[in-house]
Amino acid sequence: EKGNYPHFMLKEIFEQPETVENAIRGRLDHEMASAILSGIGLSPRELLQIGHIVIAGCGSSMHAGLVGEYYFEDLAGISTSVEQAAEFRYRNPIIEPNTLVIPISQSGETADTIAAVREAAAKGAIVTALCNVVGSTIAREAGRGIYLHAGPEISVASTKAFLSQVVVLLLFALLLGRNRRLSRSRGAELVAEIEQIPDLIREVLEQALEIKKIASRYAHVDDFFFIGRGCLYPTALEGALKLKEISYIHAEGYHAAELKHGPISLLDEKHPVMALANDIPGRDKILGNIQECRARKAPVVAIATRGDRAIRDLTQDVIEIPPCSRFVAPLPTAVALQLFAYYIAAERGCEIDQPRNLAKSVTVE
Ligand code: F6R
Predict the structure, then answer these.
(1) From ligand 1's centre to the CA of 57, what distance in Å?
(2) Alpha helix (H) ranges present in the chain?
(3) SS3 category, 67
(4) Residue 209 in 3-state DSSP?
(5) d(CA 272, CA 336)
């Protein structure tokens, strides 16, 4: 039931401190400064043999995978690629020996992701799935995996499942990293950062009214660009997807460096830009991108680390995020983007929980 919330989407956004806690519970190993993920069914030796990771998914689940790519490469030093599941299934992909394929799916019933699991298994990959729905087709067929424990997600637009996917990918990368080159002290730092995530999300939720106010100034627009770098690049893709699917505003996510390679020609006062400018590596470059947007009169909403004065000098519409490391930054940032999309859609009177033409799980290709 929706309780006091007007929509399931808002309820699910506000549940996220708890759903993320559920995704983490029992999975941190303080002693070893690592993670415990028994469902993956791989011994430390088998983990050590993994030479390459392929993540397959669709929509928001693919975006979570794109965040995961940074984690696996940076923390575990394992080369990782992320595939749209339909592309993976039809491209006759090359699966090197010792490849781990990670299908990601909230529902566990997405047709293309199911087909990707079958393709991967047929080609001899080790398959470990990330699913939310217990006993779903992907969870069963993969045979091993990690459940998200986000509880039923009713809103068609994914929110809490996306966050749990990102958290579980971070836990998995921590485990693989500690199994290899990641030092104990770096592992301990990450454990502490992961434990902080629910509070970071709470701090963003406390600003819902402020985000609503900013959103109301943009509810009339027809187009929106979202830009980010590093882990915040896939976060920008996810923010744009959230906005377009529930508000019907045309929204595009871009790597900030791509602006100059085309989309900047569109920028003017009618093309606002959401810039993910948290204080993590790349922030100075984003500052430059914001200046480029402002020079073309594009209104800019910035997500910034609390107290970042330089950004306030460039735009009045700033959504503040508590300070956090670059690996956890996608989580509170995604929550701010969910609220932003939600309040715009609400102001436009959209059918938020059931956007037109969309189904909760895409069981046909
Ligand atoms: C977006 C959204 C979709 C799903 C996609 C995959 O908000 O919900 O893009 O993420 O259809 O669904 P699952 O994760 O069930 O495979």
Answers:
(1) 8
(2) 8-14, 16-24, 44-49, 59-71, 85-90, 111-122, 137-142, 160-178, 184-205, 208-216, 232-247, 283-295, 309-312, 330-347
(3) helix
(4) helix
(5) 17
| pLDDT tens readout for residues 26-70 | 999 999 999 999 999 999 999 999 999 999 999 999 999 999 999
Distance (Å) of CA 276 to CA 207, 226, 252, 269, 363: 17, 8, 14, 19, 33
Is the beta carbon of 157 within 6 A of some atom in ligand 1?
yes
CA distance 61 to 84: 10
One-letter amino acid for residue 47 of the chain: L
What kind and span of H or E run contains 222? none
Residue to substitute in 60, 62, 168, 357 for testing ligand 1 pocket (most ligand atoms within 8 angstroms of CB): 60
Number of H helices, E strands in the chain: 14, 13
Ligand 1 center from residue 193 Cα (angstroms) = 27
CB–CB of 337/238 below 8 Å?
A: yes
Phi (first) and psi of residue 99, to 5 degrees? -95, 135
Tokens of 337: 């983007």
Q: What angle do CA 301, 305, 310 make, to 5 degrees?
A: 70
Percent pLDDT > 90 in the chain is 94
Q: What is the ipTM of this complex?
A: 0.98
Which residue type is seen at 63?
H
CA distance 213 to 238: 21
What is the full DSSP assignment across 78-92? -EEEEEEHHHHHHS-
pLDDT of residue 300: 98
State which of 89, 131, 361, 363 you would mutate to test the pocket of ligand 1, scoring each by most atoms of that ligand within 8 A of its C-beta. 361
d(Cα 136, Cα 115) in Å, to the nearest integer? 14
Q: What is the spatial distance between Cα 357 and Cα 364, in angstroms, rounded to a whole number? A: 14
